[in-house]
Amino acid sequence: MTSNQAIQQRRNNAVPRGVATAMPFAAAKAENAELWDVEGKRYIDFAGGIAVLNTGHRHPKVMAAVAKQMEKFTHTAFQVVGYEPYVELAERLNKLAPGNFAKKTIFFTTGAEALENAVKISRHYTGRSGVVAFSGAFHGRTSLTMAMTGKVQPYKVGGPFPGEVFHVPFPNDLHGVTVADSLRALTTLFKADVDPARVACIVIEPVQGEGGFYVASKEFLQSLRKICDEHKIMLVSDEVQSGIARTGKMFAIEHSGVAPDLITTAKSLAGGFPLSAVIGRAEVMDSVPPGGLGGTYAGSPIGVAAGVAVLDVIAEEKLLERADQMGKRIMDRLSGLAKKNRFSCIGEVRGLGAMIAVELVKDRQTNEPDADLTKKVTAKAQENGLVLLSCGIYSNVLRILVPLTASDKIVDEGLDLIEKSIDQSLN
Ligand SMILES: Cc1ncc(COP(=O)(O)O)c(C=O)c1O
After folding, report:
1. Helices (DSSP H) in 199-279: which residue ranges?
2. Pocket test for ligand 1, best of 267, 278, 352 (most atoms within 8 A of CB)
3. What's the mean pLDDT in 116-132?
4. Is the dihedral of CA 168, 172, 175, 178 positive or negative?
5. pTM score > 0.85 for this model?
6. Which of 69, 176, 287, 326 has the fewest C-beta atoms lying within 10 Å of its C-beta?
7. What tens digit of pLDDT does each residue of 252-268 get?
8. Whether 326 and 184 share a structural domain
9. Are residues 348 and 291 part of one domain?
Protein backbone atom coordinates (compact mmCIF):
# COMPACT_ATOMS: atom_id res chain seq x y z
CA MET A 1 0.00 0.00 0.00
CA THR A 2 1.26 3.52 -0.79
CA SER A 3 1.77 5.49 2.40
CA ASN A 4 1.05 9.16 3.01
CA GLN A 5 4.64 9.59 4.07
CA ALA A 6 6.03 8.07 0.86
CA ILE A 7 3.88 10.37 -1.30
CA GLN A 8 4.84 13.34 0.86
CA GLN A 9 8.53 12.51 0.37
CA ARG A 10 8.12 12.25 -3.42
CA ARG A 11 6.08 15.45 -3.42
CA ASN A 12 8.78 17.32 -1.53
CA ASN A 13 11.35 16.21 -4.10
CA ALA A 14 9.21 16.84 -7.20
CA VAL A 15 6.95 19.82 -6.37
CA PRO A 16 8.03 23.33 -5.29
CA ARG A 17 7.31 24.34 -1.69
CA GLY A 18 5.50 27.45 -2.94
CA VAL A 19 2.36 25.40 -3.41
CA ALA A 20 1.91 24.66 0.26
CA THR A 21 -0.40 21.75 1.09
CA ALA A 22 -2.32 22.20 4.32
CA MET A 23 -2.90 18.50 5.04
CA PRO A 24 0.00 16.03 5.45
CA PHE A 25 -1.86 13.17 3.73
CA ALA A 26 -2.88 12.28 0.17
CA ALA A 27 -6.48 11.77 -0.92
CA ALA A 28 -7.60 8.39 -2.21
CA LYS A 29 -11.35 8.95 -2.62
CA ALA A 30 -14.11 11.32 -1.55
CA GLU A 31 -17.90 11.30 -1.37
CA ASN A 32 -20.12 14.26 -0.45
CA ALA A 33 -18.62 15.61 2.81
CA GLU A 34 -16.25 12.72 3.51
CA LEU A 35 -12.76 11.98 2.28
CA TRP A 36 -10.38 9.01 2.72
CA ASP A 37 -6.60 9.08 2.54
CA VAL A 38 -4.37 6.51 0.83
CA GLU A 39 -4.01 4.63 4.14
CA GLY A 40 -7.78 4.32 4.54
CA LYS A 41 -8.26 6.96 7.25
CA ARG A 42 -11.60 8.75 7.02
CA TYR A 43 -11.99 12.52 7.30
CA ILE A 44 -14.96 14.85 7.46
CA ASP A 45 -14.33 17.62 4.97
CA PHE A 46 -15.07 21.08 6.41
CA ALA A 47 -12.86 22.73 3.75
CA GLY A 48 -14.84 21.65 0.69
CA GLY A 49 -11.74 22.09 -1.49
CA ILE A 50 -11.71 25.79 -0.41
CA ALA A 51 -15.38 26.56 -1.14
CA VAL A 52 -15.53 24.51 -4.34
CA LEU A 53 -17.81 21.77 -3.07
CA ASN A 54 -21.06 23.44 -2.01
CA THR A 55 -22.76 20.49 -3.76
CA GLY A 56 -20.31 18.01 -2.19
CA HIS A 57 -17.66 15.71 -3.61
CA ARG A 58 -18.85 13.87 -6.72
CA HIS A 59 -22.51 14.83 -6.60
CA PRO A 60 -24.23 12.08 -8.65
CA LYS A 61 -26.04 14.59 -10.88
CA VAL A 62 -22.85 16.53 -11.60
CA MET A 63 -20.98 13.27 -12.28
CA ALA A 64 -23.74 12.12 -14.66
CA ALA A 65 -23.76 15.45 -16.54
CA VAL A 66 -20.00 15.34 -16.99
CA ALA A 67 -20.05 11.68 -18.10
CA LYS A 68 -22.77 12.48 -20.64
CA GLN A 69 -20.78 15.44 -21.98
CA MET A 70 -17.63 13.31 -22.24
CA GLU A 71 -19.51 10.88 -24.48
CA LYS A 72 -20.18 13.77 -26.91
CA PHE A 73 -17.03 15.94 -27.00
CA THR A 74 -14.59 17.37 -24.46
CA HIS A 75 -13.10 20.37 -26.25
CA THR A 76 -13.65 22.55 -29.28
CA ALA A 77 -12.52 25.95 -27.87
CA PHE A 78 -15.60 28.14 -27.59
CA GLN A 79 -13.90 30.72 -29.85
CA VAL A 80 -13.73 28.09 -32.61
CA VAL A 81 -16.97 26.14 -32.26
CA GLY A 82 -19.64 27.05 -29.70
CA TYR A 83 -21.91 24.67 -27.75
CA GLU A 84 -25.28 24.87 -26.09
CA PRO A 85 -24.39 24.14 -22.41
CA TYR A 86 -22.15 27.27 -22.41
CA VAL A 87 -25.07 29.37 -23.67
CA GLU A 88 -27.54 27.72 -21.28
CA LEU A 89 -25.35 28.32 -18.24
CA ALA A 90 -24.85 31.97 -19.29
CA GLU A 91 -28.63 32.42 -19.68
CA ARG A 92 -29.28 30.93 -16.25
CA LEU A 93 -26.62 32.98 -14.46
CA ASN A 94 -27.90 36.15 -16.14
CA LYS A 95 -31.31 35.43 -14.61
CA LEU A 96 -29.95 34.50 -11.19
CA ALA A 97 -27.62 37.50 -10.75
CA PRO A 98 -29.12 40.50 -8.96
CA GLY A 99 -30.12 43.63 -10.91
CA ASN A 100 -33.13 44.48 -12.99
CA PHE A 101 -31.20 45.03 -16.23
CA ALA A 102 -29.98 43.00 -19.21
CA LYS A 103 -26.91 40.90 -18.40
CA LYS A 104 -24.34 38.79 -20.23
CA THR A 105 -21.92 36.14 -18.95
CA ILE A 106 -18.52 34.95 -20.11
CA PHE A 107 -16.67 31.90 -18.77
CA PHE A 108 -13.05 31.37 -17.82
CA THR A 109 -11.18 28.71 -15.87
CA THR A 110 -9.91 30.16 -12.58
CA GLY A 111 -11.03 32.79 -10.12
CA ALA A 112 -8.01 34.99 -10.82
CA GLU A 113 -8.79 34.88 -14.53
CA ALA A 114 -12.34 36.05 -13.83
CA LEU A 115 -10.98 38.98 -11.76
CA GLU A 116 -8.43 39.89 -14.44
CA ASN A 117 -11.23 40.00 -16.99
CA ALA A 118 -13.64 41.93 -14.78
CA VAL A 119 -10.99 44.65 -14.50
CA LYS A 120 -10.25 44.50 -18.23
CA ILE A 121 -13.96 44.84 -19.08
CA SER A 122 -14.40 47.71 -16.58
CA ARG A 123 -11.41 49.50 -18.12
CA HIS A 124 -12.77 49.04 -21.64
CA TYR A 125 -16.21 50.31 -20.72
CA THR A 126 -15.10 53.34 -18.71
CA GLY A 127 -11.94 54.18 -20.64
CA ARG A 128 -10.23 54.54 -17.24
CA SER A 129 -7.37 52.66 -15.59
CA GLY A 130 -7.71 52.89 -11.78
CA VAL A 131 -8.74 49.96 -9.59
CA VAL A 132 -9.74 50.26 -5.93
CA ALA A 133 -9.61 47.15 -3.75
CA PHE A 134 -9.57 46.53 0.00
CA SER A 135 -7.03 45.59 2.64
CA GLY A 136 -7.32 41.92 3.54
CA ALA A 137 -8.77 41.10 0.12
CA PHE A 138 -7.68 38.04 -1.81
CA HIS A 139 -8.23 38.11 -5.55
CA GLY A 140 -5.67 35.61 -6.87
CA ARG A 141 -2.07 34.90 -7.73
CA THR A 142 -1.64 36.38 -11.22
CA SER A 143 0.27 39.64 -11.52
CA LEU A 144 -2.77 41.97 -11.55
CA THR A 145 -4.72 40.00 -8.93
CA MET A 146 -1.63 39.94 -6.67
CA ALA A 147 -1.59 43.73 -6.94
CA MET A 148 -5.30 43.78 -6.00
CA THR A 149 -4.81 41.40 -3.08
CA GLY A 150 -4.60 43.21 0.26
CA LYS A 151 -2.27 40.93 2.18
CA VAL A 152 1.51 40.97 1.60
CA GLN A 153 2.57 37.73 3.32
CA PRO A 154 2.59 35.22 1.69
CA TYR A 155 0.73 36.38 -1.40
CA LYS A 156 2.54 39.44 -2.69
CA VAL A 157 6.16 39.28 -1.76
CA GLY A 158 8.37 40.19 -4.71
CA GLY A 159 6.99 42.33 -7.48
CA PRO A 160 6.90 44.76 -9.18
CA PHE A 161 3.14 44.79 -9.50
CA PRO A 162 0.95 46.56 -12.06
CA GLY A 163 0.25 50.18 -11.16
CA GLU A 164 -3.04 52.05 -10.75
CA VAL A 165 -4.25 49.68 -7.99
CA PHE A 166 -5.22 51.35 -4.70
CA HIS A 167 -6.32 49.94 -1.33
CA VAL A 168 -8.77 51.15 1.26
CA PRO A 169 -9.24 49.47 4.68
CA PHE A 170 -12.06 46.92 4.74
CA PRO A 171 -14.49 47.68 7.61
CA ASN A 172 -13.68 45.38 10.50
CA ASP A 173 -15.31 46.35 13.78
CA LEU A 174 -13.58 43.62 15.75
CA HIS A 175 -10.18 45.10 14.86
CA GLY A 176 -11.11 48.76 15.09
CA VAL A 177 -12.08 49.77 11.54
CA THR A 178 -15.61 51.16 11.29
CA VAL A 179 -17.67 51.69 8.13
CA ALA A 180 -17.12 55.44 8.60
CA ASP A 181 -13.32 54.86 8.76
CA SER A 182 -13.39 52.96 5.46
CA LEU A 183 -15.55 55.54 3.71
CA ARG A 184 -13.32 58.33 4.98
CA ALA A 185 -10.28 56.48 3.64
CA LEU A 186 -11.95 56.26 0.24
CA THR A 187 -12.63 60.00 0.27
CA THR A 188 -9.01 60.61 1.22
CA LEU A 189 -7.84 58.30 -1.56
CA PHE A 190 -9.87 60.28 -4.08
CA LYS A 191 -8.36 63.52 -2.76
CA ALA A 192 -4.78 62.43 -2.27
CA ASP A 193 -3.99 59.62 -4.68
CA VAL A 194 -6.34 59.20 -7.59
CA ASP A 195 -9.03 61.29 -9.25
CA PRO A 196 -12.28 59.24 -9.09
CA ALA A 197 -12.74 60.16 -12.75
CA ARG A 198 -9.74 57.91 -13.42
CA VAL A 199 -11.12 54.92 -11.51
CA ALA A 200 -12.58 52.10 -13.62
CA CYS A 201 -13.82 49.87 -10.79
CA ILE A 202 -14.11 49.23 -7.09
CA VAL A 203 -13.71 45.52 -6.38
CA ILE A 204 -15.03 44.06 -3.13
CA GLU A 205 -15.66 40.64 -1.62
CA PRO A 206 -19.05 41.00 0.17
CA VAL A 207 -17.68 38.44 2.62
CA GLN A 208 -13.89 38.37 2.64
CA GLY A 209 -12.68 34.81 2.07
CA GLU A 210 -8.96 34.36 2.69
CA GLY A 211 -9.07 37.66 4.64
CA GLY A 212 -11.05 36.08 7.49
CA PHE A 213 -14.78 35.79 6.66
CA TYR A 214 -15.47 39.40 7.64
CA VAL A 215 -18.90 40.40 6.32
CA ALA A 216 -19.32 43.78 4.58
CA SER A 217 -22.41 45.44 6.04
CA LYS A 218 -25.44 46.42 4.00
CA GLU A 219 -24.73 50.05 4.90
CA PHE A 220 -21.19 49.82 3.53
CA LEU A 221 -22.14 48.09 0.28
CA GLN A 222 -24.98 50.55 -0.30
CA SER A 223 -22.58 53.45 0.27
CA LEU A 224 -20.15 51.98 -2.26
CA ARG A 225 -22.99 51.64 -4.78
CA LYS A 226 -23.82 55.34 -4.31
CA ILE A 227 -20.19 56.41 -4.68
CA CYS A 228 -19.83 54.29 -7.83
CA ASP A 229 -23.01 55.80 -9.31
CA GLU A 230 -21.84 59.31 -8.49
CA HIS A 231 -18.46 58.85 -10.19
CA LYS A 232 -19.56 56.38 -12.92
CA ILE A 233 -17.27 53.70 -11.47
CA MET A 234 -18.04 50.00 -12.01
CA LEU A 235 -18.82 48.09 -8.79
CA VAL A 236 -17.43 44.55 -8.98
CA SER A 237 -18.56 41.93 -6.46
CA ASP A 238 -15.94 39.20 -6.12
CA GLU A 239 -18.05 36.14 -5.29
CA VAL A 240 -15.41 33.54 -6.09
CA GLN A 241 -15.60 32.25 -2.50
CA SER A 242 -18.93 33.65 -1.25
CA GLY A 243 -21.07 32.81 -4.29
CA ILE A 244 -23.14 29.85 -5.50
CA ALA A 245 -25.46 29.39 -2.50
CA ARG A 246 -22.83 29.41 0.26
CA THR A 247 -24.40 32.33 2.15
CA GLY A 248 -28.05 31.33 1.63
CA LYS A 249 -28.32 33.47 -1.52
CA MET A 250 -26.91 32.64 -4.92
CA PHE A 251 -24.57 35.63 -4.49
CA ALA A 252 -23.67 37.13 -1.10
CA ILE A 253 -24.17 40.71 -2.31
CA GLU A 254 -27.91 39.99 -2.57
CA HIS A 255 -28.12 40.27 1.24
CA SER A 256 -27.43 44.00 0.86
CA GLY A 257 -29.97 44.69 -1.89
CA VAL A 258 -27.13 46.11 -4.01
CA ALA A 259 -26.86 45.19 -7.70
CA PRO A 260 -23.21 45.31 -8.75
CA ASP A 261 -22.25 46.09 -12.35
CA LEU A 262 -20.13 42.95 -12.55
CA ILE A 263 -19.89 39.72 -10.53
CA THR A 264 -16.96 37.32 -10.59
CA THR A 265 -17.62 33.75 -9.56
CA ALA A 266 -15.79 30.39 -9.71
CA LYS A 267 -15.12 27.60 -7.17
CA SER A 268 -18.53 25.95 -6.45
CA LEU A 269 -19.88 27.06 -9.84
CA ALA A 270 -18.98 23.70 -11.39
CA GLY A 271 -18.92 21.43 -8.31
CA GLY A 272 -15.26 20.42 -8.54
CA PHE A 273 -14.48 21.13 -12.20
CA PRO A 274 -12.46 24.20 -13.21
CA LEU A 275 -14.80 26.98 -14.29
CA SER A 276 -15.15 30.68 -13.54
CA ALA A 277 -17.40 33.43 -14.83
CA VAL A 278 -17.91 37.16 -15.14
CA ILE A 279 -21.57 38.16 -15.13
CA GLY A 280 -22.42 41.78 -15.83
CA ARG A 281 -24.50 44.53 -17.35
CA ALA A 282 -24.93 43.68 -21.04
CA GLU A 283 -23.65 47.03 -22.34
CA VAL A 284 -20.58 46.83 -20.09
CA MET A 285 -19.81 43.23 -21.10
CA ASP A 286 -20.23 44.12 -24.78
CA SER A 287 -17.75 47.01 -24.60
CA VAL A 288 -14.84 44.68 -25.43
CA PRO A 289 -14.61 43.99 -29.18
CA PRO A 290 -14.73 40.44 -30.64
CA GLY A 291 -11.49 38.57 -29.96
CA GLY A 292 -10.70 40.69 -26.89
CA LEU A 293 -12.04 38.13 -24.41
CA GLY A 294 -11.67 34.37 -24.08
CA GLY A 295 -9.10 31.66 -23.49
CA THR A 296 -8.35 28.28 -25.05
CA TYR A 297 -9.94 26.29 -22.22
CA ALA A 298 -12.25 29.07 -20.99
CA GLY A 299 -15.77 27.70 -20.43
CA SER A 300 -14.77 24.13 -21.28
CA PRO A 301 -17.64 21.82 -22.29
CA ILE A 302 -17.01 19.69 -19.18
CA GLY A 303 -17.01 22.74 -16.89
CA VAL A 304 -20.21 24.26 -18.23
CA ALA A 305 -22.02 20.89 -18.29
CA ALA A 306 -21.09 20.51 -14.62
CA GLY A 307 -22.21 24.11 -13.97
CA VAL A 308 -25.67 23.50 -15.41
CA ALA A 309 -26.01 20.40 -13.20
CA VAL A 310 -24.84 22.38 -10.13
CA LEU A 311 -27.59 24.98 -10.67
CA ASP A 312 -30.14 22.15 -11.02
CA VAL A 313 -28.95 20.56 -7.78
CA ILE A 314 -29.10 23.91 -5.91
CA ALA A 315 -32.73 24.36 -7.04
CA GLU A 316 -33.89 20.74 -6.61
CA GLU A 317 -32.26 20.22 -3.21
CA LYS A 318 -33.19 23.72 -2.00
CA LEU A 319 -29.60 24.47 -1.07
CA LEU A 320 -30.25 28.18 -0.42
CA GLU A 321 -32.62 27.25 2.41
CA ARG A 322 -30.25 24.48 3.47
CA ALA A 323 -27.38 26.99 3.75
CA ASP A 324 -29.48 29.07 6.14
CA GLN A 325 -30.51 26.09 8.30
CA MET A 326 -27.02 24.65 8.35
CA GLY A 327 -25.51 28.04 9.12
CA LYS A 328 -27.87 28.52 12.05
CA ARG A 329 -27.07 25.05 13.39
CA ILE A 330 -23.33 25.73 13.22
CA MET A 331 -23.62 29.27 14.66
CA ASP A 332 -25.80 28.05 17.57
CA ARG A 333 -23.41 25.28 18.45
CA LEU A 334 -20.25 27.39 18.24
CA SER A 335 -21.78 30.43 19.96
CA GLY A 336 -22.78 28.07 22.79
CA LEU A 337 -19.21 26.85 22.99
CA ALA A 338 -17.89 30.42 23.11
CA LYS A 339 -20.00 31.04 26.26
CA LYS A 340 -18.12 28.37 28.23
CA ASN A 341 -15.18 29.61 30.33
CA ARG A 342 -12.97 26.89 28.93
CA PHE A 343 -13.43 28.36 25.43
CA SER A 344 -12.75 32.02 26.21
CA CYS A 345 -10.20 31.83 23.37
CA ILE A 346 -13.14 32.19 20.98
CA GLY A 347 -13.24 35.92 20.29
CA GLU A 348 -16.07 35.84 17.80
CA VAL A 349 -18.25 33.44 15.85
CA ARG A 350 -19.58 35.10 12.71
CA GLY A 351 -20.80 34.40 9.26
CA LEU A 352 -23.44 34.70 6.62
CA GLY A 353 -25.53 31.62 5.79
CA ALA A 354 -23.17 28.65 5.91
CA MET A 355 -19.97 30.70 5.47
CA ILE A 356 -18.89 30.64 9.09
CA ALA A 357 -15.78 31.60 10.98
CA VAL A 358 -14.46 31.20 14.51
CA GLU A 359 -11.90 33.82 15.45
CA LEU A 360 -9.38 32.75 18.10
CA VAL A 361 -7.90 35.39 20.39
CA LYS A 362 -5.46 35.61 23.30
CA ASP A 363 -7.72 37.96 25.20
CA ARG A 364 -11.35 38.83 24.61
CA GLN A 365 -10.91 42.39 25.87
CA THR A 366 -8.22 43.29 23.36
CA ASN A 367 -9.11 40.69 20.69
CA GLU A 368 -5.40 40.06 20.24
CA PRO A 369 -5.24 37.37 17.52
CA ASP A 370 -3.94 33.92 18.47
CA ALA A 371 -2.38 32.50 15.31
CA ASP A 372 -0.38 29.84 17.20
CA LEU A 373 -3.49 28.39 18.80
CA THR A 374 -5.24 28.40 15.42
CA LYS A 375 -2.38 26.42 13.90
CA LYS A 376 -2.55 23.91 16.76
CA VAL A 377 -6.32 23.51 16.33
CA THR A 378 -6.16 22.77 12.59
CA ALA A 379 -3.34 20.25 13.21
CA LYS A 380 -5.34 18.56 16.01
CA ALA A 381 -8.41 18.54 13.79
CA GLN A 382 -6.45 16.68 11.12
CA GLU A 383 -5.28 14.10 13.68
CA ASN A 384 -8.89 13.75 14.83
CA GLY A 385 -10.21 13.18 11.29
CA LEU A 386 -11.42 16.64 10.27
CA VAL A 387 -10.16 18.70 7.35
CA LEU A 388 -10.34 22.22 8.73
CA LEU A 389 -8.77 25.35 7.24
CA SER A 390 -7.73 28.60 8.80
CA CYS A 391 -7.67 32.04 7.19
CA GLY A 392 -7.53 35.69 8.16
CA ILE A 393 -5.30 38.71 7.94
CA TYR A 394 -3.92 37.62 11.33
CA SER A 395 -4.07 33.86 10.51
CA ASN A 396 -6.33 33.30 13.54
CA VAL A 397 -9.64 32.32 11.98
CA LEU A 398 -11.09 28.81 11.59
CA ARG A 399 -13.35 28.73 8.55
CA ILE A 400 -16.16 26.32 7.84
CA LEU A 401 -17.06 25.52 4.25
CA VAL A 402 -18.73 22.12 4.69
CA PRO A 403 -20.73 20.98 1.62
CA LEU A 404 -24.35 22.18 1.79
CA THR A 405 -25.35 18.63 0.88
CA ALA A 406 -23.87 17.24 4.13
CA SER A 407 -26.33 15.68 6.59
CA ASP A 408 -26.90 17.20 10.04
CA LYS A 409 -25.25 14.07 11.46
CA ILE A 410 -22.02 14.73 9.56
CA VAL A 411 -22.11 18.46 10.40
CA ASP A 412 -22.57 17.63 14.11
CA GLU A 413 -19.75 15.09 13.97
CA GLY A 414 -17.49 17.77 12.45
CA LEU A 415 -18.52 20.29 15.12
CA ASP A 416 -17.76 17.72 17.85
CA LEU A 417 -14.29 17.39 16.35
CA ILE A 418 -13.81 21.19 16.36
CA GLU A 419 -14.75 21.30 20.05
CA LYS A 420 -12.42 18.39 20.83
CA SER A 421 -9.57 19.90 18.81
CA ILE A 422 -9.81 23.33 20.47
CA ASP A 423 -10.04 21.65 23.88
CA GLN A 424 -6.95 19.52 23.22
CA SER A 425 -5.01 22.51 21.88
CA LEU A 426 -5.64 24.44 25.10
CA ASN A 427 -3.93 21.79 27.24
C1 LIG B 1 -12.53 35.91 -3.32
C2 LIG B 1 -11.55 35.22 -4.21
N3 LIG B 1 -11.23 35.78 -5.39
C4 LIG B 1 -10.36 35.19 -6.23
C5 LIG B 1 -9.74 34.00 -5.91
C6 LIG B 1 -8.76 33.37 -6.87
O7 LIG B 1 -9.30 32.19 -7.39
P8 LIG B 1 -8.35 31.10 -8.06
O9 LIG B 1 -7.51 30.51 -6.97
O10 LIG B 1 -9.30 30.10 -8.67
O11 LIG B 1 -7.53 31.80 -9.09
C12 LIG B 1 -10.04 33.38 -4.69
C13 LIG B 1 -9.40 32.11 -4.30
O14 LIG B 1 -9.38 31.70 -3.18
C15 LIG B 1 -10.96 34.01 -3.81
O16 LIG B 1 -11.29 33.46 -2.64
Report:
1. 218-231
2. 267
3. 98
4. positive
5. yes
6. 176
7. 999 999 999 999 999 99
8. no
9. no
